[in-house]
Design goal:
Strand content: 25-35%
Number of domains: 2
Radius of gyration: 18 Å
Strand order of the largest sheet: 4-11-5-10-9-8-7-6
Oligomer: single chain
CATH class of the largest domain: Alpha Beta
CATH topology of the largest domain: Aminopeptidase
Number of helices: 7
Order of helices and strands: HEEEHEHEEHHEEEHEHE
Helix content: 25-40%
Number of strands: 11
Structural class: alpha+beta
CATH architecture of the largest domain: 3-Layer(aba) Sandwich
């Protein structure tokens, strides 16, 4: 499996579909649309979900397309945020600069071929991992929020977002238990044979017990059993999450840049 344009299209389409499912689960005050190969999501002016996926990689991002996308976010008086895959090409980046966008975030998109045999992973026998059921949603949201409490910018929204994600179509929530306590949580979104790993966190005082390794192994096993051939994750470059992914066989498909245009520009 090569990190080429076809794979990039599949990965970007999956993350766009995941964002649309999350926003659609909220129902009130949010909106998403899929036009010209671009997933557009509005989930509040300050939400990390308010952005696009797939710009220029599924269909050409002409000036007309960019204008229509800007109109979508303009109706909500929100800044326009595009997650741009480098395989969309330099002309798109030049267009964004001309339209007064600036780069504001960089992330690495990793992938794993689930059809290949993976080395056995030694897990902490003290830990158990299971898919959260309807009665576990409070624990799932609580643990996820606690694990992300150091993300100051989005901390107030994490718990609500956890409920939204857990009830989204195609999403599975996982809980890690040590003894009688839940210590970590993570999510998995399945779309057209791609498994998107997302939302993993461990309570600060419980880190170091291998919870993330355990929940990663559980999610990959779940994805294989549900017919997925590829797993993906999006991480901060050089982060512990990236190192954890690479230890478990993930490779970097490409480095993606988020471009932002202020709502004040109209």
């Amino acid at each position: 499996m090569f990190a080429d344009l076809e794979l990039a299209r599949r990965l970007e389409r999956t993350e766009g579909a995941a964002g649309a499912a999350f926003v659609g689960a909220r129902r009130q005050g949010s909106e998403w649309a899929h036009r010209h190969g671009v997933y557009m999501m509005f989930d509040g002016a300050n939400s990390p979900l308010t952005q696009t996926f797939g710009l220029g990689i599924l269909e050409p991002a002409t000036d007309e397309v960019l204008s229509k996308i800007e109109e979508f976010f303009g109706r909500h008086q929100a800044a326009v945020n595009h997650e741009v895959c480098p395989l969309a090409g330099v002309p798109l980046l030049q267009s964004l600069v001309k339209r007064r966008y600036i780069p504001c975030e960089v992330s690495n998109v990793l992938f794993l071929d689930l059809r290949e045999n993976q080395p056995a992973v030694r897990l902490n026998p003290e830990l158990t991992v299971r898919v959260a059921g309807a009665d576990d949603l409070d624990d799932y949201a609580r643990v996820l929020a606690l694990g992300w409490s150091d993300a100051v910018e989005f901390a107030p929204q994490i718990k609500e977002m956890a409920y939204m994600m857990a009830t989204s179509e195609g999403y599975a929530a996982f809980l890690v238990q040590r003894g009688r306590e839940f210590i970590a949580a993570a999510g998995l979104f399945l779309h057209e044979g791609i498994a998107l790993l997302a939302g993993a966190s461990t309570i600060a005082e419980e880190r170091g017990h291998g919870a993330q390794r355990a929940v990663l192994a559980a999610r990959l096993d779940y994805a294989r059993k549900h017919g997925c051939g590829v797993a993906m994750m999006v991480v901060e470059p050089g982060s512990a999450s990236q190192r954890n992914g690479e230890r478990n066989g993930f490779s970097i498909a490409y480095t993606r840049t988020k471009w932002r245009r202020s709502a004040a520009l109209g």
